[in-house]
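Hypothesis: this fold can be encoded by more than one sequence.
Test: take the structure tokens below, design a sequence, compare later.
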């Protein structure tokens, strides 16, 4: 990836991450603020509902008390306290009293629970209302305020705020039971903030027929006391708002069912359509009756349209800002690349020239900033490298001549000493016994010739190393080179009386030919095999392998000899360095020179007492 592309990626990533983080933070904070505001608005509407509910309850209680304290009620109680009271004369009184006191429901009930008069359902005259007198005696209706009750009507049911007061005449009682509907007129009295709605749900009792806006009934037959159960998103009951039956009651069925099963305040988000902006958060308060049974629910819905639209606007702004940031990043990356990469490219080109051997290259330092300082430092570095190279060349040249002189002196001193002794013996024999001089001369001549041959061999080795020929490349089968090198040592490997050395030859016969000098490779492999044999004076295993390698072939020569230390491995290819008691230390240096001239690489792995392994990697086509 180019520097400009990296800068563009960096600028773009920075802008996108920054804008994304800001957008997320704003959305998160905004959502939190909206939730707090929604909770406050819901709490305010709930409080308004509680106040209006309490006001109506007090109003119902006051009106029922007004009827109970009226002369008509007292007259009726006195008339009914006789031995054989006539209820029929009071059948129509409840309707008139309900109208006069603005009550939707009013029933006059005798002390034994018999309905004397009913304003909402006159046909119930003579029926019993056992809940008024109670199974163990009548409750203290004086202390009891208004309460919720499901009121049966001729055409269905209604949810009502009811109050009960007692007219006492001697031992006889007259119960005045009155109340008002809790319906859409009650919801219309609430002041709703924009984006909120209020719903009223009435639990179903014995509903005689299906009416508009009523949630479909579920099959009966559940265990007693288990409460209503949902069936495919449907529950019993009726759901209304301030205009009438609520048309999308089925969407609220799961929330209503949950509150029916666990009558506590609950909240849920209702998605009316696939559009997220259509969703509302509903909060539900269960409405319980005299015996704490759930008779209905008050639902407050709060739209999240404002939140969704605001989040859309934030995302749109974030996309615009991110797009602008990317365009700015393109411009900045182009300017930065032109400002930065040109000097860097010049430095890179100069570095390549230095690597190629041109140490006199210089870079123009036109600016005074960090890039200019870098160019000046590069020029100073190359100048110092040239100076150090010259000094190093001189030092190495002197050291090389000194080492060569030392090695020549060491190698030539060994044969010179026998030569000196031989000449001295000849002189002594000539002076002491001329008669035996001829015999001594013949023996000394053989010694002189042998040592002179040895000196000639030593000088030849140094001469060969000094004038290593360039490889004459041709198609070579590396397996044939290895076999030829091993054939030289067949006699040595099979010599009787010597410690046995086992030879393992593992050659890859699928290897193709490579471009190489067969004579030089033969000499290199032969030197490595000879080193391996010298490392196993007590016998062992010699392993020779050829393998395919990336772009060429590999030759592996291993022994199980005494091995080498780490320090010895590091100096092993240094000219004139040897770990043997005999030899010039040029064998491995020659091997490394041959491999290097072929564009290959040689490496060694060894540990004391664990043997040594040499690896030669040769390219198929040397550069």
């Amino acid at each position: 990836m180019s520097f400009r592309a990296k800068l563009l990626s960096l600028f773009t990533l920075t802008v996108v991450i920054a804008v994304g983080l800001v957008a997320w933070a704003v959305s998160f904070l905004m959502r939190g603020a909206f939730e707090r505001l929604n909770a406050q608005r819901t709490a305010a509407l709930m409080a308004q509902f509680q106040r209006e509910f309490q006001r109506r309850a007090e109003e119902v209680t006051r009106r029922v008390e007004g009827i109970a304290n009226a002369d008509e009620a007292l007259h009726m109680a006195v008339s009914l306290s006789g031995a054989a009271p006539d209820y029929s004369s009071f059948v129509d009184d409840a309707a008139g009293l309900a109208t006069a006191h603005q009550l939707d429901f009013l029933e006059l009930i005798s002390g034994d629970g018999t309905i004397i008069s009913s304003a909402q359902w006159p046909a119930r005259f003579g029926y019993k209302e056992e809940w008024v007198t109670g199974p163990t005696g009548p409750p203290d209706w004086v202390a009891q305020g208004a309460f919720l009750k499901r009121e049966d009507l001729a055409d269905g049911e209604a949810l009502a705020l009811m109050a009960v007061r007692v007219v006492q005449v001697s031992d006889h009682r007259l119960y005045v039971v009155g109340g008002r509907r809790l319906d859409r007129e009650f919801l219309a009295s609430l002041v709703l903030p924009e984006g909120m709605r209020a719903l009223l749900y009435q639990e179903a009792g014995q509903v005689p027929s299906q009416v508009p806006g009523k949630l479909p009934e579920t099959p009966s037959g559940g265990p007693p006391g288990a409460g209503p159960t949902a069936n495919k998103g449907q529950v019993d009951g009726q759901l209304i708002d301030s205009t009438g039956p609520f048309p999308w009651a089925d969407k609220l069925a799961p929330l209503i069912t949950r509150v029916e099963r666990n009558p506590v305040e609950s909240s849920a988000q209702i998605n009316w359509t696939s559009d997220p902006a259509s969703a509302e958060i509903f909060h539900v308060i269960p409405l319980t009756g005299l015996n704490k049974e759930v008779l209905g629910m008050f639902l407050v819905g709060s739209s999240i349209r404002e939140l969704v639209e605001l989040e859309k606007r934030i995302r749109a702004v974030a996309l615009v800002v991110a797009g602008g940031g990317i365009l700015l990043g393109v411009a900045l990356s182009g300017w930065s690349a032109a400002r930065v990469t040109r000097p860097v490219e010049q430095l890179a080109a100069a570095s390549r020239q230095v690597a190629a051997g041109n140490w006199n290259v210089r870079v123009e330092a036109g600016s005074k900033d960090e890039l200019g300082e870098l160019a000046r430092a590069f020029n100073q570095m190359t100048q110092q490298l040239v100076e150090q190279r010259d000094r190093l060349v001189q030092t190495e040249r002197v050291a090389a001549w000194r080492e060569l002189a030392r090695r020549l002196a060491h190698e030539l001193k060994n044969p010179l000493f026998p030569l000196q002794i031989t000449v001295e013996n000849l002189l002594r024999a000539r002076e002491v016994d001329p008669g035996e001089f001829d015999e001594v001369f013949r023996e000394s001549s053989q010694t002189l010739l042998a040592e002179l041959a040895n000196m000639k061999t030593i000088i030849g080795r140094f001469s060969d190393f000094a004038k290593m020929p360039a490889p004459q490349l041709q198609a070579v089968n590396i397996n044939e080179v290895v076999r030829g090198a091993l054939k030289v040592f067949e006699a040595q490997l099979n010599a009787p009386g010597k410690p046995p050395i086992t030879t393992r030859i593992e050659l890859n016969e699928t290897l193709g030919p490579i471009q190489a000098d067969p004579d030089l490779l033969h000499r290199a492999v032969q030197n490595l095999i000879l080193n391996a044999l010298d490392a196993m004076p007590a016998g062992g295993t010699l392993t020779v392998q050829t393998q395919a390698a990336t772009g060429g072939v590999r030759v592996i020569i291993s022994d199980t000899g005494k091995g080498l230390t780490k320090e010895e491995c590091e100096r092993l290819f240094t000219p004139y360095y040897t770990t043997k008691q005999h030899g010039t230390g040029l064998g491995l240096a020659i091997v490394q020179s041959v491999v290097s001239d072929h564009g290959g690489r040689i490496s060694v792995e060894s540990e004391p007492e664990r043997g040594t392994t040499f690896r030669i990697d040769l390219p198929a086509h040397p550069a």
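The CA atoms of residues 148 and 161 lie 5 Å apart. Residues 183-216+230-303 form a domain with the Beta-Lactamase fold (CATH 3.30.450.20).
Hypothesis status: open.
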